[in-house]
Design brief:
Elements (H helix, E strand, L loop, with lengths): L6 E4 L1 H6 L11 E5 H10 L5 H17 L8 E2 L5 E5 L15 H14 L4 E4 L3 H9 L3 E3 L15 E6 L1 H9 L2 E3 L10 E6 L6 E8 L2 E4 L15 H11 L5 E6 L5 H15 L5 E5 L16 H8 L1 H15 L3 H13 L3 E3 L13 E5 L7 H8 L7 E6 L15 H9 L5 E6 L6 H9 L1
Parallel strand pairs: 1-2, 1-5, 2-4, 5-6, 7-9, 12-16, 12-17, 13-14, 13-15, 15-16
Antiparallel strand pairs: 3-4, 8-11, 9-10, 10-11
Helix pairs in contact: 2-3, 7-8, 8-10, 10-11, 12-13
Length: 438
């Protein structure tokens, strides 16, 4: 039986989300409406990740053009064929307002559909997918870099065992058992099958072995973990052989506070790193950063206010100083370049050695952006990604497609990587009920 080749019509946001997406539809037709090319042309001038993605796609298309006519279709290495289609006034579906770019893109998909082709419209924009579905076109999100958030790796597991296994664990530094099968750096709660209160907490140091948590990490910067999950997080944040850590959790679970506390401890007290570098993506809930007053540093300081709040709290906790003296100490740390705040836009292209890097609100990054950021890590650099995949401000991402969730799913089990999902809000009773009920 002859295989029916599909026509995948790609929206602009798919190419900006993943500039390699044109290579993801093997042995099928990839269709780019002319409007998509025009929108890429508008984005290519931007000095950010969207601009870089647009330029990357344009370069790929130019390389394909050297192999033939993009109008007639060019064969790609994966067996697929890519074409650029110019919208026409007499296309089926042009009853829509054709001054709207999304409608012109949909008109191309609708025209191919009217010709009897198997058409799939691919878009990260929910509203565009709703329009396509209303036109009778098969629609889909770009699925290649998605994971199942409901089944996302939590970083820890519970194992029911006989009492003698737990007793043996407490008598030795490392417990090895042929019945164990754990991922690297996965935390394990051994629980007595007859008495659930009799338990032990360890970290996997091999598929069949677990070790006790390091007693040196019972507290960090005068912060004592309030839950087993926070204790796991501190273990990862402080462990010198774990270079990449991800922490996810709802508001108030302490992920950012613990990360900054561990960073201060490692940089200022232990001297393991030269600098604490903190950054977060600029995804405004109101006006864009460009509308804020002042210089770049002034704007960045306003956007980084949650980081300053945590620094202020930690400094007061450590030194028991008044507000004015605490601010002077923080200012000194910035002046001495022991702490640095930077916009993610300026991290690309850098090689960052010997630094403790925290990327806050990482759920607003695409998988491609997270890969770009992690690849900036130089020798002896530790990187922490924190965020809440249930609170995403990027309109083209969700809990399953964002870069933070994708990183957790793809890197689980790697020896240099560790993860913990924090579930209990520790900020305040008010914060907890807001997270639970609002």
């Amino acid at each position: 039986m002859k295989k029916v080749r599909k026509y995948f019509v790609l929206d602009t946001n798919v190419l900006l989300h993943n500039p390699e997406s044109i290579n993801s539809f093997e042995d099928n037709f990839v269709i780019l409406p002319m409007t998509v090319i025009e929108e890429l042309d508008n984005f290519k001038r931007h000095n950010d990740e969207l601009g870089r993605s647009a330029r990357h796609v344009i370069r790929q298309l130019d390389q394909l053009r050297s192999k033939g006519s993009l109008k007639d279709g060019v064969k790609m290495e994966n067996g697929g064929t890519l074409s650029i289609v110019v919208e026409k006034k007499d296309m089926p579906g042009t009853f829509m307002d054709m001054s709207v770019p999304d409608n012109r893109i949909l008109a191309v998909a609708h025209s191919l559909h009217a010709q009897g082709e198997r058409v799939i419209f691919v878009s990260k924009d929910i509203n565009s997918r709703l329009k396509g579905d209303a036109l009778g076109i098969e629609v889909m999100d770009f699925e290649k870099q998605k994971c199942n958030f409901d089944e996302l790796y939590t970083g820890w597991t519970e194992k029911i065992v006989p009492a003698e296994i737990i007793d043996q664990f407490y008598k030795t530094e490392t417990l090895t058992n042929p019945d164990f099968d754990f991922l690297a750096n996965e935390f394990v709660i051994l629980r007595n099958q007859d008495n659930p209160k009799h338990s032990g907490l360890g970290r996997a140091v091999g598929p069949k072995s677990i070790a006790h948590l390091n007693s040196k990490f019972e507290a960090v910067w005068n912060i004592h973990p309030r839950s087993k999950e926070q204790r796991m997080a501190v273990e990862l944040l402080m462990h010198p052989e774990i270079d990449l850590v991800t922490l996810i959790g709802r508001a108030g679970t302490g992920k950012t506070l613990l990360a900054i506390a561990a960073g201060l401890e490692c940089v200022l007290h232990q001297g393991n790193y030269e600098k604490l570098l903190v950054s977060r993506p600029i995804i405004p809930m109101g006006k864009d950063i460009g509308y804020l007053p002042g210089t770049k540093d002034d704007k960045l300081n306003l956007w980084m206010q949650p980081i300053f709040d945590n620094l202020n709290y930690l400094m007061r906790l450590q030194h028991k100083l008044d507000e004015g003296t605490v601010q002077q100490k923080i200012d000194r740390l910035f002046k001495d370049q022991q702490i640095e705040l930077e916009a993610l836009t300026y991290i690309r292209g850098r090689s960052i050695p010997k630094q403790y890097i925290i990327i806050d609100e990482a759920q607003n990054l695409t998988p491609h952006e997270v890969k770009t950021i992690i690849s900036r890590a130089g020798e002896n650099t530790k990187m922490i990604l924190t965020g809440d995949p249930n609170q995403i401000d990027n309109p083209y991402l969700d809990s399953s497609s964002n870069g933070l969730s994708y990183t957790i799913e793809k890197l689980k089990g790697q020896p240099l990587y560790g993860h913990v999902t924090l579930s209990k809000s520790e900020r305040s009773p008010l914060s907890a009920i807001a997270a639970d009920f609002l």
